[in-house]
Design a protein that fits this description.
It comes from Altericroceibacterium spongiae. Keywords: Membrane, Transmembrane, Transmembrane helix. This is Pilus assembly protein. InterPro entries: TadE-like_dom. By secondary structure, this protein is of the alpha+beta class. It has one domain. It has 3 helices and 6 strands. Strands 2-1-5-6 form a 4-stranded antiparallel beta sheet, with helices on one face. Helix 2 runs antiparallel to helix 3. It is rod-shaped and about 100 Å long.
């Protein structure tokens, strides 16, 4: 009796479509979720890029009286991310940004700074010819991103970071 039941069950085709549909639905779910991971990563990265760019424009527009204390909060608010780590550096030194008694430097092609007096011509290897020394603000923002389905390496990096340098003087 048991053997005939199992033979009948093995030949039965009713419900096969429902099982195929269930399997295809699971596959579709994983593909869509993976695509959403990519999309959310690029949306979050775009928010950070936009926030840093807007903060650098604001700093440039108010270059003689930049509110360095509020600038990181401004970047966090624009990016909609309270977990965003924002650092400010002026002429390559973190935490020394000021609106008075600024010391100037020349920006090199490697991203480093060579101290010079303000408005002096930048000379030497690695600096742009005919440029003058200035006061540079760098805004660097970063935060981690956790994908839902994809492994961290699939997005290139699990850290979203954007940096902008603007000349204030």
């Amino acid at each position: 009796m048991m053997r005939s039941f199992l033979n009948r069950l093995a030949r039965e085709e009713r419900g096969a479509v429902a099982i195929e549909f269930a399997l295809w639905t699971v596959l579709f779910f994983f593909v869509v979720t993976g695509a959403l991971d990519f999309g959310m990563f690029y949306i979050e990265r775009s928010k950070v890029n936009k926030a840093v760019s807007a903060a650098s424009i604001t700093a440039f527009e108010n270059r003689s009286e930049v509110d360095f204390a509020q600038l990181p909060d401004y970047v966090r608010a624009l990016s909609d991310s309270s977990s965003l780590t924002v650092s400010l550096s002026c002429n390559g030194a973190e935490g020394v940004c000021t609106n008075t008694e600024r010391t100037c430097a020349c920006l090199t092609s490697e991203g480093t700074y060579v101290a010079k007096s303000c408005n002096a011509e930048c000379t030497g290897s690695g600096v742009t010819a005919n440029s003058t020394a200035g006061y540079y603000l760098t805004i660097d923002a970063s935060r981690s991103y956790e994908p839902v389905i994809l492994p961290k390496g699939a997005l290139g990096s699990s850290v979203i970071e954007h940096k902008a340098t603007v000349r204030l003087q």
